[in-house]
Amino acid sequence: MIPREIGYREFVILMASLIAMVALSIDAMLPALLDIGKDLDAADPNDPQLVIGLFFLGLAFAQVIYGPLSDSFGRRRLIFVGLGIYLLGSALCLVSESLPVLIAGRVIQGIGAAGPRIVANAVIRDKYSGRTMASVMSVIMSVFIVVPVFAPLIGQGIIALSGWRAIFWFFALLAIGAMLWTAVRLPETLPPEKRKPLRFGTVFAAMREVVTTRQSFGCTLCMGMVFASFLAFLSTAPQILGEAYELGEWFPLTFSCLAAGIGFTSAINSKLVLKYGMQRMASIGIGVIIGASLGFALWSVVIGMPPLGIALLWLACSAGSIGIVFGNLNAMAMEPLGHIAGVGAAVIGSISSLISVTVGSLIARSYDGTALPVAMGYVICGGAALLALRWAASQRVRRVQP
After folding, report:
1. C-alpha count within 13 angstroms, C-beta hemisphere, residue 136
2. Against a cut of 0.85, is the pTM above it?
3. Considering just the CA atoms, what is the radius of gyration of the chain in Å?
C-alpha cells in the first residue's frame, strides 16, 4: 500500500516523534539512574551515568551507516530497520541482570534510534531548504520537546507502578507504534531516480565533501561542543538536582520545567530566525549559555555552592538557549548538502555525537558532589562552539559576496 500524501501538521508531528525517540530514551531513564545503580550493584556512584552516555555512543557510530543506506535504498526502509534494532536493544535491557549487560542493551538501543533520527532529518531536507527548513526544524523541536517535558514524569510513574525495568516495555510499545504510523502514513520522499548506488568510493567522496565544506563541518563541531556540555548535565542531573540539592521526588518535575523552556525558546526561534537569520540567533544562544554558566561558576568558587534558586536560573538560561541553538546549527550544517542529504545528515550527526559523548562523559565523570564541573564545562565548550561557529560563518559570508 502506498500512503497518500501526508499533510504538513501530521508530517511535523511524525518527524518530531521519530527524532524524539532519542530524547525519550534518555529522559525517561533519568529518574531510574539512582535505582539502577543500587539494584545492579554499581561499583562507582558515577557508573550509572553510562546508561545515558553510552546510548549516545551507539547513536554516534550508527548514524554514518544509516545515511548512505537511505540514499541508496530509500528513507522508509531504513526507518523500519532502525526501529527493529531499537526493539532488540529494549529486550536486552529488559532482561539484564548486571550493569554491563544493561549498558550493552543501551548501546544497541542507540544504534537503533540513530535510524529514525538521521533518516527523518534527510526526509525533512528532501522536502525543505534554507530558512524555511530552519523554521520547520524549530517547529519540530517545539513539538517534540513535549517528550522531554513529560518523559521524566512518565519514567517516575512507571517506576512507581512496576519498577524501572518496565520502562523498556514502554519503549518497545512506542517503537512498534512508530513502525505502524510510518508504514501507513509516510510516503517515500526519495524517488528511485534520485538514489545513489551504494559504493564505498561514492560514500567516501560524500563524507569528504561534508568534512571539507567549512559551513557544514564548522557547524557540526559547534553542535558537538554545545551538546557535550548539555550531555554532561543530563548524565549528572539526578545527582545534582536529586542529591546535591536534595530535590528527591521533585527532580522529574523540575527537569520537566527546564525542558519546557527549550520548547518555548524553539517556538520563538522559528519566528525570529526568519527575520534575523540562523547565525545571529545561534550566536545569541551560545552567548547566553556562556554568560549564565560563567556567573554560576564564579559564585561557586568565590562564595560557595549557590542556592537552589540561582542553580535553577542558570539551568533555565542554559537549557532555554539550547532551543535557539540546535535548530539553527542543524539547518546551517545541512544547507549546502541537499544533493547528499542522507550522508550529510549521517556524518553531521555522527561527528557531533562522538564529540559530545567524549567531551561530555569526561565532564560528567568529574562530578564531585557540586555543579561546578558542569558549569565550567558549559563555559569551556561554549567558548569552543562560538569559535567554531565564527569559523564556519566566515566562509558562508564570503560565498555570498559578489
Report:
1. 23
2. no
3. 20
